[in-house]
Amino acid sequence: MTTATALVCDDCATVFPFEGLATLCTACGGLLEVTYDLGAVPRDFRERAAASREEGMWRWRALLPLPPEARIVSLGEGNTPLVAAPALGARLGVPKLYIKNDGVMPTGSFKDRGFSLAISYAHHYGLTRGYTYSSGNAGASFAAYCGRAGIDGTVFVEYIANDAKVAAIQMLGAKVFRLRYTSSVEIFDTLTELTRAGEYTFVNFINPIRHEAMKVYAYEICESLGWRCPDVMIHPVGTGGGIWGAWKGFQELHSLGLIDRLPRMIGVQPEACAPLEHAFQNHLDETVPIGDVTRTIAQSIAGDDMIAGGRRALRAVRDSGGGAVAVSDDDVLDAVRDLGTVGVLAEPSAAVGIAALTAARAHGWVHEDDLVVDVVTGTLLKQTETALQAAPAVRGTVRATVAEFRSIIEGTGD
Ligand SMILES: *Cc1c(COP(=O)(O)O)cnc(C)c1O
Ligand SMILES: [Zn+2]
Description:
The chain is α/β, with parallel strands linked by helices. It has helices at about 45-50, 85-90, 110-125, 135-150, 165-170, 185-195, 215-225, 240-255, 275-280, 310-320, 330-340, 350-365, 385-390, 400-410, and strands spanning about 5-10, 15, 30-35, 80-85, 95-100, 130-135, 150-160, 175-180, 230-235, 265-270, 325, 370-375. The chain is about 35% helix and about 15% strand.
């Protein structure tokens, strides 16, 4: 049922079989990546998925690394809508604009695909206790799937996480601790040490399974477009798991002959802390610590450095002919409002793609004729303080009488 073959190290190319809970390479500490035997993928992969009795992302199980006998831990993730936004697109110079709305996932963010897969996998291999660190969304998702699987989950939330997100994690049953640190580097070092000591972590990229589920973006988007590949895909970038996974998915579809080209991938971060954009613009091989995570409303993607030097995310944007953009909070707030006009409620981190379009056009990575897919990764409803900040004031107060209602509706009242 799965065509996954092994785990291979990014740095030393050591190959590890699937025989339990592997995290980082035990030879050199590098990141592990799942490999597949694409020749063994059924020729009618698309048709099978379309006819599958599984739901959402699990229709694509042939390209997900879960042993066939494993139980799926699911809350109905995936199959999110691809919303055409021609009027907003025209205003931004790309009339063929589509929004992939992952804000409608079970816990309100795109993290659910990753945790459905990663928790299914860990549960299969007998994990009873696990942890992740999170700015809010990963924690909620992790908590929800741990709850379903009976895994005892602990979430270390970043101190910048807002209260609504923290409350959601607690509602979903995980133990929550607030995490103090001065730089993302501290967290990465601590996590690496814990991983070496044998602890299993659900942090993106350190966990080699999680981002595999992000490939399903590529499958769902191409399916929604009648098996046409978009010219451009824009994705917010935190650790880079989302954009890396999506890029891998497009490459797989291309290798399988199901799409005739690849999209340019554009990664977006807040101006206050944009290590990917900094490394990209300065032609660096790796990200370096930069910026201040407290100075942006885009909390879910606020990091002053990236795991493993952001090398995978850099590869995704460079190899695809795309780029990296940094956006201001003011532009992000405007993008939150713009997305509201097309019926999509996006948290700031999820709206950065729309905020980046003008700059991406100016760089020449996006052209007027392009079919552009922007991914909205999380719902505004979990970042209520931004909703209050972005929304206009209520028009006024009326008495509930027929006469007052009528005068408002007919536009004669104030
Ligand atoms: C986690 C998150 C991201 C960043 O995803 P990465 O895979 O870490 O790059 C973007 N947007 C939202 C809403 C998120 O929760
Ligand atoms: Zn290695």
